[in-house]
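User: My advisor, Dr. K., asked me to get a structural model of this assembly before our group meeting. I'm new to this, so sorry if the format is off. These are the inputs:
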Amino acid sequence: KAGVTQTPRYLIKTRGQQVTLSCSPISGHRSVSWYQQTPGQGLQFLFEYFSETQRNKGNFPGRFSGRQFSNSRSEMNVSTLELGDSALYLCASSEGTGATEAFFGQGTRLTVV
Amino acid sequence: GENVEQHPSTLSVQEGDSAVIKCTYSDSASNYFPWYKQELGKRPQLIIDIRSNVGEKKDQRIAVTLNKTAKHFSLHITETQPEDSAVYFCAASTRGYSTLTFGKGTMLLVSP
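Assistant: The format is fine. Below is the predicted structure of the whole assembly, which you can bring to the meeting.
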């Protein structure tokens, strides 16, 4: 069974630009959650998608958005990038029905300059 | 919303010693508590989890205990080895869904 795949692995963007990150979950998993990981704040929840619908959302500004496609692949978008958006962005896939193990991708390292 | 506090932030032990990491949570509705290990440059990986209807769970050298009344749970690693060195995160599942609220992590260093 293939694991969770995130692309790209690394990104360098300039302040003010926008960026789109992609996550392909484990086959059969319908839930994809996104997390921002920084040294100071640890792992912070961004949002969760289940069957193409946003089911839960964390405390991030509206510049952070996402979507999920019918094949469960998910994308997150960050518009008007700020220096503080530099982080490792992780997605996690799970079955989504009740409390089950979440499997993480390797992450996308975003650097905003 | 849920808040998870984790202590200590760093923990240094000698090989063969035991290590204990403690977490508290705020939302009494949380019912799933996983622990993740993240090695440098790698993705977080689940090492053990516990559900709210269970007080303790063991898997070889790793155990987790849960006290629902006090809203805290702990990770116990016995006979530590250098390869146990990593950052460990506790988490709580809010409303039983896939959303996880994480503690800030504990850097465990096991010296030979």
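One thing worth pointing out at the meeting: The radius of gyration of chain A is 13 Å.

User: Perfect, thanks a lot.
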